[in-house]
Every structure is written in structure tokens, then in C-alpha cells.
């Protein structure tokens, strides 16, 4: 019998997240893929999941999962896992996914693997590939014990694949125990961003400590706009409050894999490399010839960002006109 | 004078290798090499300590720091006490070495259960191992609600409120005390210890607990208790080397040529 692989459905900005579809595509390749989808979701959610390989969707539309954070989902997941015993449950490394997986791993006393970039089942045993120490090492790990294995998956670990199934839907009852209703979301603020989202952008122009201040991110904005891309930043730039956290790329920020990544004034700490090393083409500009970023760059320019980038901008404008 | 809204806070901290040090993994033990590596209070944990100090300075109460680790954890404990923490608990036992996230959470939970607390504050994830699992596991084991990814934290009466980082902005999230809060890297800028703080730290109480004190055995902690098993340690495939040029006044143009060659512009 095929291994039963579950995906914890993740809804971000009112949509089934891409990470959910990536995990589902992998789950369908590993065995029988089923999704648990808790809380409000788009009307076509089951259809979308079905089109990416889901054979079954456990579903509750109850708003409790949205209004009361984490705890109701943990309760429902624990009940469902006890009843159906999936081999593996995959979670997105989103805020919600991480909270539910962590709590569940203690409740079920099973532990969890995080930051997983690939996984395989060998005779039913889980083998996960996990970058360690910012990606300078790559480990394979497993979880001991007979029970269900919980796995938090890195974004963009897998490709989404259309895989038409006709998923059945089973409604699940939400928990009513007051103990799981303790965390209330009272307000949701969306910060509007212009231009393409970082994760979806084909071109990213990113700045680090070498920019020396927030005002100088403006030239990166200009370059990104010319290339139809988005602006990103290192943790150093975010910690210095030059740009918001939403722009942070790296181990504690976003993982990106654009076609073109232009690193400006970025030394290339392993934590940053972990978030952008998968970019197809990397261009780096830095004054320090020893900067580790040059080891991953396809083209490195040892020079001053404030000379090289303006010249690049002029050149792009000229060629656009030309 | 005691205030009605004073809060007793436990902060979970750890020591990590200095950020300037390149960390290695020992292929035999499959663990990070910590011996002979200079350690410091995890900069992420320092933000948790700072947030706890700001709360108690405003409304009274105590800050107890819990650190698990060997003798070199002392440097982190002293660091947190020098910042202003009231007391510290050191979970120190060779039996704890090699614990995975869940084992660590069990040890922390066992120690924290001995304390009266209103809040537990942790970093969202540590600067070295980054699993980010421990706080959520700890909250579950303590039976308190996890308020995670906080970019701000306030306590009024018996209600804690955070701004929680979200994919598209932030959410305002509340719960009744006791709660566990994880703080993000942008929440504050930790203070540097003053000389007075450093001197004062030497007189502060550090309680030590062994695994036996915590009631934990090899099925739960250490390598034997770890659910997570590392099978192999390797290196990822390296990127092929690229070209590095020096800007001689044409750097911007050379980048444009390079991009045009690859049809990226």
C-alpha cells in the first residue's frame, strides 16, 4: 500500500500558498497525498489541491482556526493523526506552519525536522536532506520511533506539478474546548508593497551593510525598477532598521531563487547565502576582494557600489533607449 | 513597592559561538564543534533578555534567565545578569549534551515549572542551530499559549498583547497570562552591560540543576533521548567558480555586457 503523506494546508493572503502546492506535488510523488485544510480558504481551494495531487482533503471552514491562533489547529491535527496515522506530515516553514508543527511535535512526543530541502522514504523510513550552519554543510537526518513524522519544509524545495486527482472531502469538527481558544487575533494589518513580491520576483537587487545607510537603498530601487525586479536586504541592513523585515533574505528571512540576483555591498555571511544561493545568476559588487559573496558570484566586481551601480543604471537606460 | 501589574519573567537563553567564528561539524559525533570555540550570549537571546528587562523596569517584577549548556554557558549567564537579570538557572549535566530540540524543551520546561512565572520569553530561533522548534515545544509542555514572532510586546493587567509578524504585515494577538512569547530580531536593541552591572552580576545567584534534579532520564534527553538522528554529514555541491573583476571605471558597463550576454536584459 502506498505511504500516506499529509500536507498541512497553508493559506497566506487569502490564497492556498505556493508552499502548500510544492509540498503536495512532492507528497503525491512519494505516496498517497492528502491535505488537512483548516479555517477559511478560497471557494476553489479543494479544486486547486485536487489539481496538484491531493486524493483527499480533510476540511473545516470554521473561523476558529483563523481567530484563535495555533491551538485549535494543534488539537484537530492531533486527533486526525491519531485516527489515520499518516507516515509523514509536511508543514510549510511559514509563521503558522512552524507554530503548529512545533506544538504538535511536543504534544505527540515525536519531535520534528526543520528546514528540510528534500526528503525520501526508504522502505518506509524517512530521510530528509537539511542544510546545516547556513548551508555550508548538508546533512541527512531522520526521526526515530514508529509514529507519524513531522517535517517542516523549506520554501521552494520542490517544484509544483499539475497532477489531476478527484479529491474526496471529509468535514472535520472544530474543537470547542475553551483551553484551545486562549490566543485571539484582534487585528490584521497588511502592509502594502509596490512592485513584485520578493519571493516571486525574477530579478532581485539586494543591499547590505556596505550601503551605509537607508537613503542609499534608493539607487537599488531604481536599478530594480529598471530590471522589473524587487529589492531585498541582508539581516545587517534590517537590524540597522534601514529597511523593513519583510525585505530580509537569508536564514531568518526569505529564501529566494530568482533568475538574477545582484548583491550590492553584501559581504556574504553564510546566513545570507543560505537564502539566495539557489539564484540562477549572481552578480556581486563589493569593495572587499576577500568578501565570501565572490565565491558564489557568477560575476564579481570589486568596486564601490556608489560608482558601479549608477553606471549600470545609466547603461541600462541607454540600452533601453537604444 | 509591589505593583499590581508586576510580572515575573523567565528568559530562555543559550550561548553560541562568536559570530566571527567559522563553525565546523565533527564528522564523528555529527555535532557542532563547541570545544575551544569562543562563545557569547546568543545575540537573539539578548533581545529576549532586553525585552524582559524593559517590562520589569516599567511595571516591576523579576527576570530569571535559564541557560542549558556546559561550563562555557557561564559566559552567557554572566552576560545576561550583567545586563540586569535578577537571577539565573544553569542546566548543566553531561547527560543533557546531544539533546535535540524536544529534549532541550523538556529540560527547560522541567526547570521553569519550579519557578512562579507570568511570562516566558525566548528568541524566535537561536543564532546557531536555527530549528526554531524549542519555544513552541516548551509552550506546549508548560501548557501556556505561545505568542510567537513578536515585533512588540505589552502587558496590561493580566493580558499580554503582541504585534506578530505575518507574511503580509502584522497581526495584533492577545492572551491571558501566563504566556510564552518569542521575540523577533527587530524588537529592540539590547543594552550593553555597564561596569556596575558586570560587577553586580558576580554577586547574583546562579542555581544549578542536573538532569536528576529535573527528573529527566536517557529516554528523554541527551543523544539517547533525541528523536532527531543525523545519518550523514556532507557538503552541498559547490557552485562553479565565476569571474571576479576589479572596477577600473567600467564596472557598471561590464555588468550590463554580462547581463546582455546571458539575455537577462
The H-and-E topology of chain A, N to C, reads as: EEEHEHEHHEHEEEEEEEEHEHEHEHEH
Biggest beta sheet attributes of chain B: 9 strands, mixed
Radius of gyration of chain A: 22 Å
Task: Please list the strands of the largest sheet of chain B in the order they lie side by side.
Answer: 11-10-9-12-8-1-6-7-13
Q: Name the largest protein-protein interface in this structure.
A: A-B, 89 and 79 residues
Q: Superfamily at the CATH H level of chain B?
A: HUPs
Number of helices of chain B: 8
User: Which stretches of chain B are low in confidence, meaning pLDDT under 50 for 5 or more residues running?
Assistant: none
- Architecture (CATH level 2) name of the largest domain in chain A: 3-Layer(aba) Sandwich
CATH class descriptor of the largest domain in chain A: Alpha Beta
How would you describe this protein?
The complex is a heterodimer of chains A (322) and B (265). By secondary structure, chain A is of the alpha/beta class. Chain A has two domains: 4-181, HUPs (Rossmann fold); 203-321, TPP-binding domain (Rossmann fold), CATH 3.40.50.1220. Chain A is 29% helix and 28% strand. Chain A is built from ten helices and 18 strands. With 265 residues, chain B is α/β, with parallel strands linked by helices. Chain B has a single domain (7-225), classed as Rossmann fold (3-Layer(aba) Sandwich), CATH 3.40.50.620. In chain B, 28% of the residues lie in helices and 31% in strands. Chain B has a nine-stranded mixed sheet, sandwiched between helices. In chain B, strands 2-5 form a two-stranded antiparallel ribbon. In chain B, helix 2 packs across helix 5 and helix 3 packs across helix 4. Chain B is globular, with a radius of gyration of 22 Å. Chain B starts with 6 loop residues before the first strand and ends with a helix. Classes of the chains: A alpha/beta (322), B alpha/beta (265). At the A-B interface, helix 5, strand 7, strand 9, strand 10 and strand 13 of A face helix 3, helix 4, strand 9, strand 10 and strand 11 of B.
Amino acid at each position: 500500500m502506498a505511504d500516506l503523506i499529509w500536507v498541512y494546508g497553508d493559506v497566506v493572503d487569502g490564497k492556498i500558498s505556493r508552499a502548500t502546492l510544492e509540498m503536495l506535488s512532492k507528497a503525491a510523488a512519494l505516496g498517497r497525498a492528502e491535505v488537512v485544510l483548516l479555517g477559511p480558504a478560497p471557494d476553489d481551494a479543494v479544486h486547486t489541491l485536487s489539481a496538484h495531487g491531493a486524493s483527499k482533503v480533510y476540511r473545516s471552514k470554521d473561523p476558529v482556526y483563523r481567530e484563535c491562533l495555533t491551538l485549535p489547529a494543534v488539537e484537530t491535527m492531533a486527533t486526525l493523526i491519531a485516527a489515520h496515522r499518516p507516515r509523514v506530515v509536511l508543514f510549510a516553514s511559514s509563521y503558522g506552519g512552524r507554530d503548529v508543527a512545533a506544538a504538535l511535535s511536543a504534544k505527540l512526543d515525536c519531535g520534528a525536522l526543520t528546514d528540510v530541502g528534500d526528503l525520501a522514504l526508504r522502505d518506509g523510513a524517512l530521510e530528509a536532506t537539511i542544510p546545516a550552519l547556513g548551508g555550508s554543510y548538508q546533512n541527512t537526518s531522520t526521526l526515530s520511533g514508529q509514529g507519524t513524522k513531522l517535517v517542516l519544509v523549506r520554501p521552494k524545495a520542490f517544484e509544483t506539478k499539475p497532477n489531476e486527482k478527484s479529491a474526496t472531502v471529509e468535514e472535520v469538527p472544530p474543537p470547542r474546548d475553551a483551553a484551545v481558544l486562549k490566543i485571539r487575533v484582534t487585528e490584521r494589518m497588511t502592509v502594502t508593497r509596490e512592485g513584485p513580491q520578493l519571493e516571486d520576483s525574477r530579478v532581485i537587487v539586494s543591499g547590505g551593510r556596505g550601503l551605509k545607510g537607508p537613503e542609499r537603498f534608493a539607487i537599488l530601487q531604481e536599478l530594480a525598477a529598471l530590471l522589473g525586479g524587487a529589492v531585498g536586504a541582508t539581516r545587517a541592513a534590517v537590524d540597522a532598521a534601514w529597511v523593513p523585515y519583510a525585505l530580509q533574505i537569508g536564514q531568518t528571512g526569505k529564501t529566494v531563487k530568482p533568475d538574477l540576483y545582484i548583491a550590492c555591498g553584501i559581504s556574504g555571511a553564510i546566513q545570507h547565502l543560505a537564502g539566495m544561493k539557489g539564484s540562477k545568476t549572481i552578480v556581486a559588487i563589493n569593495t572587499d576582494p576577500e568578501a565570501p559573496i565572490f565565491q558564489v558570484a557568477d560575476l564579481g566586481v570589486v568596486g564601490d557600489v556608489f560608482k558601479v551601480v549608477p553606471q549600470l543604471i545609466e547603461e541600462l537606460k541607454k540600452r533601453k533607449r537604444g | 513597592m509591589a505593583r499590581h501589574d508586576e510580572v515575573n519573567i523567565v528568559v530562555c537563553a543559550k550561548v553560541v559561538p562568536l559570530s566571527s567564528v567559522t563553525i565546523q561539524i565533527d564528522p564523528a559525533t555529527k555535532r557542532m564543534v563547541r570545544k575551544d570555540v569562543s562563545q557569547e550570549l546568543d545575540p537573539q537571546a539578548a533581545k529576549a533578555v532586553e525585552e524582559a528587562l524593559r517590562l520589569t523596569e516599567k511595571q516591576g517584577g523579576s527576570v530569571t534567565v535559564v541557560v542549558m549548556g556546559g561550563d562555557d554557558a557561564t559566559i552567557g549567564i554572566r552576560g545576561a545578569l550583567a545586563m540586569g537579570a535578577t537571577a539565573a538557572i544553569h542546566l548543566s549535566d553531561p547527560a543533557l549534551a546531544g539533546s535535540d530540540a524536544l529534549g532541550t524543551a523538556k529540560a527547560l520546561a522541567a526547570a521553569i515549572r519550579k519557578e512562579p512565572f507570568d511570562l516566558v520569553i525566548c528568541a524566535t530561533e537561536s543564532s546557531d542551530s536555527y530549528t526554531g522548534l524549542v519555544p513552541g515545544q516548551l509552550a506546549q509542555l508548560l501548557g501556556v499559549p505561545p505568542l510567537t514572532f513578536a515585533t512588540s510586546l505589552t502587558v496590561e493587567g493580566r493580558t499580554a498583547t503582541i504585534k506578530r509578524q505575518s507574511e503580509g504585515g502584522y497581526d495584533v494577538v492577545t492572551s491571558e497570562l501566563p504566556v510564552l512569547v518569542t521575540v523577533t530580531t527587530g524588537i529592540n536593541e539590547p543594552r550593553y552591560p555597564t561596569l556596575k552591572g558586570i560587577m553586580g552580576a558576580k554577586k547574583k545567584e546562579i542555581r544549578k540543576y542536573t538532569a536528576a534534579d529535573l527528573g529527566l532520564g536517557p529516554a528523554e534527553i541527551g543523544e539517547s533521548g533525541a528523536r532527531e538522528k543525523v545519518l550523514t554529514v556532507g557538503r552541498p555541491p559547490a557552485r562553479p567558480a565565476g569571474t571576479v573583476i576589479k572596477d577600473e571605471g567600467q564596472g557598471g558597463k561590464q555588468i550590463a555586457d554580462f547581463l546582455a550576454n546571458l539575455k537577462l536584459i
